[in-house]
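Fresh eyes needed here. Have a critical look at this protein's tokenised backbone.
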Amino acid sequence: MNNRLLQTLPVVTLSSLLLAACGQPASPPAANQSTTEPSTVTTMPAVAELLIANPSDFVRSQQPVYLSYYDLGLTAEQAQDLVARRAGQLVPLQHLDRSGDGRRDTLFLALDFQPAEQLQLHIEHDAAALAALQLPARTQAEISHKVGGEWQGAKYIGGTFQNVQQLTPPPQYTDHSEWIRYEGPGIESDQVGYRIYLDWRNGFDVFGKTKPQLVLQDVGQDGYQSYHEMADWGMDLLKVGQSLGAGGYGYWDGQKVERVSRVGQHTAKVIENGPLYSALQITYQDWQIAGKTVTLTADLSMTAGSRLVNTRLQLSEPLDNLAIGLVKLPDTKLIQGEVEITGHAWTYVATWGNQSLSAPDSKLGMALLFKRGQRTAQTEDEHSHVSVMKPAGSQLEYYFLAAWDGEADGIKTEAEFIAYLEQQAEQLTLTPRQRLHTAATAAKLQQPLTAEHALYWGELLAQSEMVRQTPYYAHGGWDYERQRPATFEYTTGLLLQAYDDLLQLKPNAEWQQVISDVVNSFVTPEGDIRTYSIKKYNIDSLNTGNMLLRDYLRQPNEPARKALALLRRQIAEHPRTQDGAFWHKQIYPHQLWLDGVYMGMPFYAFYTSQFEQGQGLPEVVKEFKLTRELLRDANTGLYYHAWDEAKQQVWANPETGLSPHFWGRGLGWLSMALVDVLDYIPAEHTELRAPLLQMITELAEALPRFQHDSGVWYQILDRPEATGNYLESSGSAMFTYFYAKAINNGYLPPSYKATALKAYQGLVREFMLMHPDGLVSLVNTVQVAGLGFGRDGSYHYYMSEPVFRNDAKANGPFIMAAVEIAKLLGYPVSQ
């Protein structure tokens, strides 16, 4: 099975959405108008079409899919009656409060996929169908405590249990107080159940189930001892003791785990209790830990057909060395998943063996799944196997699970357990590929593509990023994409440069000031650059120099001049291959990457043309010539991602030194570098310009052969039918910019105009989502893709990197493309 269906989503789908939309869409703003118009979406029968594909070559049963109302272009009030249909049949679904704030915000689907299968879903309003939808209960969350008795010290005597939505135990409550049924909140699916001790132990325990029916409502009704013995439903399987149990969390002090014990109070809340998805939230108020007082909020959820508990931890302030772990018991084996993978890929640590209380020879497996890059150490203390984690800012997400051989059709052997974990890790790493087309976006696409309409989308995306990210790129701010403090790196400069391009057509004093403030926030009064180190010889660091130089030319000042000179010094000292190609980084020796050509050469050309009478331009052009000589494939006209002169990297062909694939964004970087560098090489320098113009012509001829019918391009350019491949927004935006700018500047003939316009229209149609608050998002961007350090350059590797949204590496080129397309269609350039 292949991705052919992903290539052929019929245009009639979009037309049907347009016809279904109620009301007339607003016209795009005139050149001097703001784009802050409210969303024009009203209640309508058709909401969206979703084409979704399984990126794995194995069956995925009950694959969770979350569609936020926000992405569907609807408010919570407008979305309450949504249903999903496949071939006219209702798909199992549930409306969720995914954020835990008390308001439903997400349409949850549980989908069954055959290997590499694609499904086409129709999202629409149908209150009657939703009301009539009857699904068997396959998950539940509950909290139950006694009423009608009385406290006698730390014991609760008498009374009966009642379920509640929220519970904060009184100060005297502790372990074995006989007040909370099975001592804490519980959560289960049709596979397995768990309980969390709501006291100083904060242990995580497992209820093994012999049948798929939900059982928590019956557990512990007659006291604490009953569920420690085998019943017709199963039993409590685990001796937690002083450990973290089956996947609990705490703090690693360097020698042992400190559990979440010293807290002001615990509050547990049932967030969702539905047939397909249930969730708990536990808040640990005023946790005294590591000399700090922090509040920890844990959101735990389960979905039908799954053993996994999605665990999302939120701290009130950053705290490194969070610990997650599994109880350490005799007669068990510690199993670790793959670590030679990208830091964004999911892996696991697990135990397997005779650790079940059900019988001496009963087998139980437990596991933690997490992103490889967030684990800083794997260690242990007396009671637990411990994974020491570095949160992304104040957040950490992971999963825990248990698999018991006593389940109906349960996992019986270690080999089966490992195979199961490998598939779970892949399912978390390779998310389903989605093409979402909404009526909210389609309503804005009815107008013909004019210069004003082209610019409208670029300006609207820029405005959205002013809310979400752009001002926070300043030193001391926060990079929400990478979940770390903002730094002087290429993404900062790329997005700011896109704003600067936009301001050439639509001046905006406020935006101009923000751009200047952000880029200069990194420059010290002495002319150093905060967060930058020349000793790393990282060519990526040079890209933000473009924006620093643009701003300097507007407002010359000595600190900025010195900072620019520091970047020029890096160029002079930067290590090179024997033929003179720039290494990508000091830590990537002997390697020429397509990415690096864009990161370094436009700035080098810009700087040398301003301060050195262009003396460095021959070296700039040489970099492109070497890139063509070493990385270009003569058969396709495409360029490989990278080349290793030493031919020693795991990803390098031992004969050619080349990486094995044509990565879309990698070639996108080169295409933008070609048209940008020519800005700084005078027209009379025909010999210097000739190699670049030749490369532009060759690339312009090659790319349409790999362009999808929609106008955009794939993540791996030449493998459209490979399982998991997807239409990718950043490379597509870069190619659109390349064509439009090359035509505008006379590097390509007007005959390529149709290619450029098709690409831009495809960008908006495929990747833009209108939100109900008037903002937009650009989706389906590969977050990163590099080589080395666990990134082996295989096809599977490129598929394993996260698919992201509102990434500067796509938003910047999209805005730049909007500017060039507007100019191509006749938009006047401000003087």
Remarks:
- Residues 1-44 have pLDDT under 50 and may be disordered.
- The two ends are 55 Å apart (CA to CA).
- Residues 451-468 form the longest helix (18 residues).
- DSSP finds 19 helices and 40 strands in the chain.
